[in-house]
Write a structure and sequence with these properties.
CATH topology of the largest domain in chain A: Alpha-Beta Plaits
Number of domains of chain A: 4
CATH class of the largest domain in chain A: Alpha Beta
Strand order of the largest sheet of chain A: 7-6-18-17-16-8-9
Helix content of chain B: 40-55%
Strand content of chain A: 15-25%
Helix content of chain A: 25-40%
Largest interface: A-B, 51 and 55 residues
Keywords (chain B): Electron transport, Heme, Iron, Membrane, Metal-binding, Transmembrane, Transmembrane helix, Transport
CATH architecture of the largest domain in chain A: 2-Layer Sandwich
Shape of chain A: globular
GO molecular function, one term (chain B): metal ion binding
Number of helices of chain B: 20
Shape of chain B: flat
Strand content of chain B: under 5%
Structural class of chain A: alpha/beta
Largest sheet of chain B: 2 strands, antiparallel
Oligomer: heterodimer
Distance between the termini of chain B: 79 Å
Number of strands of chain B: 3
InterPro entries (chain A): 4Fe4S_Fe-S-bd, TAT_signal, TAT_var_transloc_signal_dom
Number of domains of chain B: 4
Organism (chain A): Sinomicrobium oceani
Protein name (chain A): Quinol:cytochrome c oxidoreductase iron-sulfur protein
Chain lengths: 1039, 426
Amino acid sequence: MASNKKYWKSVEELDPSNSVVKTLKQNEFVEEIPVDEFLGDKENLEASSTSRRDFLKYVGFSTAAVTLAACEGPVKKAIPYVVQPEQIRPGVANYYATTIADGYDFASVLVKTREGRPIKIENNAEAKVNGSANARVNASVLSLYDSKRVQGPKSGGDYITWEDLDADVVAKLNAAKAGGKAIVLLTQTYASPSTTKLIADFAEKFGNVQHVQYDAISEDATLTAFEQKYGKRALPDYDFSKADLIVSFAADFLGDWHGGGFDSGYAKKRVPSNGKMSRHIQFEGNMSLSGANADKRVPVTPSQQKVALAKLYGYLSGSSVSGELPEHVDAAVKNAASQLRKAGRGAVVVTGIDDVDAQGLALAINEMLQSAAFDVKAPRLLRQGDVEGVNKLVSDMKSGRVGAIIMSGVNPAYTMPGAAEFTEALKSVSLSVTFSMKEDETAIATQYVAAAPHYLESWGDVEMKQGYYGLMQPTIRPLFDTRQFQDSLLKWIGSDKTYYDYIKDFWSTSLLGSGSWNKALHDGVFVASAPVAVAGIADNQQDDAEATEASTAVPAGNAAGMARKLAAAKADGLELVLYPKTGMGDGQQANNPWLQEFPDPITRVSWDNYLTVSKADAEALGFTNRHVANGGLNGSYAKVTVNGVTLDRVPVLIQPGQARGSVGLSFGYGKKEGVKTEMQTGVNAYALYAGFNAIQSVSVEKVAGEHEFACVQLHNTLMGRGDILKETSLEIFNTKNAKEWNVTPKVSLNHNEVEATSVDLWAEFDTSVGHHFNLSIDLNACTGCGACVIACHAENNVPVVGKSEVRRSRDMHWLRIDRYYSSEESFEGDNEVVESISGLGDSLTTFGEMEKASENPQVAFQPVMCQHCNHAPCETVCPVAATSHGRQGQNHMAYNRCVGTRYCANNCPYKVRRFNWFLYNNNDEFDFHMNDDIGKMVLNPDVVVRSRGVMEKCSMCIQMTQKTILDAKRDGRKVRKDEFQTACSAACSSGAMVFGDVNNEEDEVFALKKSDRMYHLLEHVGTKPNVFYHVKVRNTEEA
Amino acid sequence: MKEVIHRNSVSGILSISLAILLAFSTTLFGQEGDPDRGKQLFNSNCAACHKLDQKMTGPALAGVTDKRDREWLHKWIKNNVALRKSGDAEAIAIYEEFNGAVMNTFPQLSEQDIDDILAYTENPPASAAAAGGAGAGQVVAAEPSGVPNEVVLGALVLVFAMLAIMLILVNRTLMRIADAKGIVLPEEKAKRLPLWKAFVKNQFLVFVSVIVLLLVSAFFVYGYMMQVGVDQGYEPVQPIHFSHRIHAGDNEIDCKYCHSSARVSKTSGIPSLNVCMNCHKNIMEVAPETATAEHSKEFYDGEIKKLYAAVGWDAESQSYTGETKPVKWVRIHNLPDFAYFNHSQHVTVAGVACQQCHGPIEEMEVVRQFSPLTMGWCIDCHRTTNVKMEGNEYYEKIHEELSKKYGVEQLTAAQMGALECGKCHY
């Protein structure tokens, strides 16, 4: 059955009387050209001493001067190497495998370098664990070229030499040792075996050394629960490609839960094959990426989540668990329990509730289920933060027991809930050193800032998962006078080794066995053949069968006790859930303009964080969101108080799907130090992170004022066309003919209804010869993670325009991920409602009524870039033929030919063309990376940087397809299977985007184009795009 | 020579005659070696590391026989390694002086060969100087080979002047005769309308000439405008006078030896200085024949010195100092940023000769931009050039399909799609 449900992007759209929405539907460019601004000011014009004649003289003179100046070209210099490194050939990219481990993001990646400059991060297909780069990792290459980096060691605000720093530090360390005081190393999670050994060496030399690991966003509850059960501080690993049923209690596993990286496994099971796909049930408060992808999402507050989890345990174990739940939630839990029982080993329960009992109970449930997706044999090690240790450290510092503190990769003066207390305590420590890339809050409060290199300039090793190693290698010579933490430790213990030697020795003796160091370095990853002898669980459980035995070893009463405690959870008032945003994470890369401008997948807001509030709560508290005439979104401010700490002006965003009684606020914003003024956005949520617990009881009240969001939500409306996103349910997909659920639109021809694809205004292009590129996007596999958006930025030199320009709908993203909410919970109900509409008046009221569904909408993501139409509307209207059709299926855009009429953008039904309103490079008005020499190093030399006044858009990465063709020609061979890639398809770890040549039967895209689920966007327009989508199938089978 | 007791009278006679022969064949010192033959041997075996008058990888060899014992020299040249191993102090000293640079052993050289070489080091034949003199003579001799144009022109002017004078004289004579005979010449006609007024009155003529004038000026303005930004013939002065004439022309070095990136990359690559040093470690000066009327040998040698300064090479100690001054070449071919050009596509795949776009580089003393590098120029070539697809598996299928489509055997680049905007502009 066809789904013709109404999609909408914001609740405002459902209000038929909203004049702004109506206007926006008609206009691509929301704002008038502001002529009035300079001509309307009569007083000023008259007061000016410049007469009309003078003005004309100036114009004439400057025109003549410019013309003359343009006649002679500048003299350009070319400076070759004196000794050219063997591996570098100008114009040819080199790739190096390395690993990012910044304490929050861990991934094995490939780094593309040109002439020795890293310019792009790509996925490392060889990696078994976290081989895919998320949006932040993709953007991390720009953080290397951050002009705010500390350029050398500093003391008291002045640059000093490393020799001076070393002498001072060693003297003070010795003094601390002599004085019997503790020396504390406060570091990020390194998960680095060689660093662990090095710190042990350091402790041996200086005696009373404590190593405290600190995660800005703590996973302490899980670590503790896991330790209690299995005796090792680690996180359980999950393989969602083995899960047929996922029940998640607020675990945003498609986000950063447990270090992230689960999306590729998850997506594998989400694409229906042989009539089967996994089912995903999510109970959560905030609308998260995982919730948005779930088949069934139940909005519940954190305290209800705890009760629900306890009840689930009760239903599964057959014991009765008290606790109160709303009726529909209880029913959903019961239902989930019965499905879990049915799914058996294919089921998995995950939870993100920040509570030791909840985590412990989830572990117990998974053991009970004998879940195949659940792995405790080789747990994840990429979160090690120790809340207790950090708390103890602060009290030790205050009492003067700490003689020296050396910090690395952490910024407690910003990320600690009691940051002021920490900086105060820091004053009573006689030596404080911080290894930092920025002069951040902590660096200001410490005596010595040891300039730290970026991970692309460092050596390192990471054990992300027990037995799975990654190597970090420098891909560029250090840009500044920096030295990494490990090298400094070696220096201070008096070793003459470099950290590189140290790692190599350590790996050769302890890890590699018979493996080769060079191969490990080349691959970037290494899997230990035998489990490395780390005492603990590795030996306890040889296989799943034994896992069962282990589960019986856990006293049942223990789990029941946890359930009992959870069931007693109660909330008084609103509950606040603190969460990391997809773009910003823990806020380390706050000075990264790509990430600031990255629109959040759910809210589509960039350059901000905000309090997400449900519609009902917003009404009760008097919060409003409204669209203003220029297409921007405005929202109320709230005063948020947690535990006596108050944030005064937090912008409020009304979030459909937010559980009533809960509010959300993201970490990572409100950073002030070491961040450019434009990027000092949002409020610092860490202040509310009392006791390092993400769930807080909160009081919220409205305060005066209105916040201006940079939201790309109402931009580029779809002109009221409804067949953009096709959906069906698994049942219908399996039982009905494709014609019924993937309907080809009909148009009228000679007063007969015919299929839109059969009618054509133009003669067909011959697409049968040579390559013909197509991009396939599977809406089932797309999780909306946004890695492609940043990869596109990096590959195509897409400019950053800043908050106020985004607000004016002038964002330059070549690739956007549209997010649609739908109204009804079930397709049938939705269809019935829409089909029963008769007449305009009725439709207005009906759509108005459907607004209620915003309590819990269904969500779908749809990446949209230039569709590369074979019959492109833009091409026919360009007066200067700047955009033309390529034989290989690409719609070309010759920027130097464009005169900026913008007819093409007006005629594009997909609204994917972007106009350069300004010169975004070398312009102080846009003080982002393209305005300084360091930031410009990230530019891709194969793609031109566009100038003012031209239209730009997705080129289907023609520079990449051209390179692939040239490589094949040069080698005298055919293009290999699936060799063609675009930046987005290469970045897509979930396999949602597949690029290739449809004239090559071997390419994956060839089969995908033949699929039943294939459809084109706005088929009835007859544009015949070369980008196609796959109908989204939801697994709505209950029990 | 070793003293040998000659018992055989025939051999004795032979050796005496040989001695006499040698005595007469050598000029001054009556030595056993033949310097001419020695020169050949020196050039083929020794010149890579030695010069007569200058230190290179090894010491300067002029007068080496004065410094060292002959017997020792023979041993050293034959097998210096064995000599050093035997603990010879002199041998070890020289080995250390040249930073442990190991000299090749030459077991293939006979004693006579070595003597010839040593003879050459003592007394190099003065052929080079003679050749230089001959060259200079040739230049002088070339001068009077034709009557200079100026002379011809001068003669012509003189003839015309004489004719004019004669005409005036004749005219004057005739006038005088007419005067004498009393003939009255007719008066000039009545005043005509001035030409310009007649022109102005004829409106059609004015109209046509204005149109013509406008068209002509439009033609020139267009011509001027279209050459703005086209730097054909651009020949900037470079920081080092690098002569492609000498390298690519005289020495026939393959373009891609230095510009090796052209094979695999979009840029042809300006060679890094270490590539220069592959040869210039040994070539410290140009041959005298290389010099031209315009640039002397000293000039070229000075340019090589500039290279040494840039790369930080100390010719005295034959070692790198580590102080480098990268050369700031002036870029000649400047394609705008919005145009993508890939050398390897043209050089490796299409097999286009470098000269097709860059002109007769091997004849250019200083490189200039030979082609206009305009889009029209690119397009013209793409329209007319056939794609080289023989033996390239990539083209097999597409060639088959396209040649059927267009009904041709050979496809031009344009037919392959090389005129599409997006192929070069992205």
